[in-house]
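Translate structure to sequence.
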């Protein structure tokens, strides 16, 4: 995966803490400062993470889920965070992807 070091280092850090309890689901190949991760059994339960324009060690986060029944949208946004640190991001990921330790 060709991503900015801020993203690859974050993924490595998340992998150390969560193991294989998430998968990279990257719909943003051209955006080197962003990546998506999802629950292994539910790709619609997605966390979009971006380091672009954020202070070092902070990330913008958007939480996505399957669209509401009858919606033409490919997903629904269920949460947004403008600048969270790694520990905050870890808690957000665990909650949104329903990962328990």
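Result:
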């Amino acid at each position: 995966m060709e991503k900015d070091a801020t993203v690859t280092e974050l993924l490595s850090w998340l992998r150390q803490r969560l193991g294989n309890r998430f998968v990279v689901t990257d719909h943003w190949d051209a955006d080197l400062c962003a990546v998506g991760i999802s629950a292994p059994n539910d790709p619609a339960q997605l966390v979009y993470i971006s380091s672009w324009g954020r202070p070092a060690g902070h990330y913008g986060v958007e939480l996505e889920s399957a669209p509401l029944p009858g919606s033409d949208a490919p997903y629904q946004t269920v949460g947004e965070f403008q600048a969270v640190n790694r520990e905050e991001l870890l808690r957000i990921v665990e909650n949104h992807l329903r990962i328990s330790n």
